[in-house]
Amino acid sequence: MKQILGFLLLISTIFPVAAQSPVAGNIPHTPKSVLDDFMDQRFGMFIHWGPVSLRGTEIGWSRAYEVPVAEYDNLYKQFNPTLFSADQWVKTAKDAGMKYLTITSKHHDGFCLWPTAWSSYNIMNSPYKKDIVGELARSCKKYGIKFCVYFTVLDWHDPDYPIHRGREGIDPKADMKKFVTTMKNELQEIIKNYDPYMLWFDGNWESPWTDEYAQEVYAHIKKLKPDVIINNRLKSISQNIEAGSDQNVLHQDAIGDYATPEQKIGELNMNDPWETCMTIATQWSWKPDDQMKSLKECIQTLAKTSGGNGNLLFNVGPMPSGQIEARQVKRLQEMGSWLKTYGESIYSTKGGPYKPNEIFAATRKGNKLYIHLFQRKSDGLTLPALPGLKILKARFLKGSKLPYKASNGQITLSIPEQLPDPNDSVIVLELDGNAESLPVI
Ligand code: JFZ
Predict the structure, then answer these.
(1) Which fold has domain 350-437?
(2) What DSSP assignment string belongs to 217-238?
(3) Which of 126, 215, 308, 423 is the most exposed place for a label (fewest CB within 10 A)?
(4) Which of 53, 59, 149, 202 has most ligand 1 atoms within 8 Å of CB, for mutation?
């Protein structure tokens, strides 16, 4: 008996997850209070990084295309980012006014930035040999930044995964069940060792990935950490790439908590949590001399996202040295200094009631309505009236009063010739009631 138990114990240590563990009957959903807290953060740092930065091509996607497979898959042997400092990255995020950070633990190329026991294709077999995910998790804790992990479903490198992009068809030697077991074990390591606040899934569009698998993995994660936030890219979209690939909205049958518009600002949505992910330049991972967004574009993107009631996960791709480009660090600092002055109109606000446009976006908190003015079209800004509420006072945030008129179902604010901020001048309208109760106008 003892021998059998010992054997079972040994087996369960080697294989902590049974290949076909049934989906738990009652999958716990993430509490609304947790999601409300997430949406209060508004601004996070996305980091796409790996050995591919040595080539400067796109992470995952360039494998077998811009970079031949044999070359791509051996880049890790030269990956030695000796100037990497988790503290410096996290400080860069903090100084930018970012409240959370999401690192690509594993992208579509399969390389793991943490010392996983489940694949030798990981950072410990590079010359660097340090746990990048772990160091970031520690630094985030130290600086009060919420630590989050990106994890791809599809893995074009793993022989157990049936599709190896660059090669035709389904690999008959692959073993999808075994692949999913590995995935669950890797996620278990990540949750146990790094305690992520949120998991950012991706790579859910290829045929081997089904909703049964998604549910199995979801239940597994929620058993390990019921409050962890999960994006909407765990659910399979392989059956319905066209309609299903619309991950901009949170569908009724979502497996996950929030929608993920990519490289575009999400639409105003007062019901479902969402987060736009967007690159500071054009590529997710580092590209030399990549075209970087202007400060105006960066600030207005954040204001329009908040104005639509969403979060912004803003991406940088660090260099193979381990550093984030100096010009990108500077751009992020500039965003941070804008936020130091105007942050109260972004953090913990709700978007609306007006839909963001090229001229302005609106955010609100309590009896305050913030108008983010992007450009001066004339000496007056006319807005539709606020049903049932009166304006008590209008002023620039941290600035002077603004004359205004309210009549005939319209509000007209007098706009001075010289705006206080060239990128986003924030106007505060103090109301005689709760701005958050206004319907979308
Ligand atoms: C995905 C990743 O592929 C990309 O590398 C990055 O990590 C981003 C945040 O998420 O973006 C996609 C997803 C799907 C397609 C293209 C980019 N697609 O189906 O063409």
Answers:
(1) Immunoglobulin-like (2.60.40)
(2) HHHHHHHH-TT-EEBS-SS--T
(3) 215
(4) 202
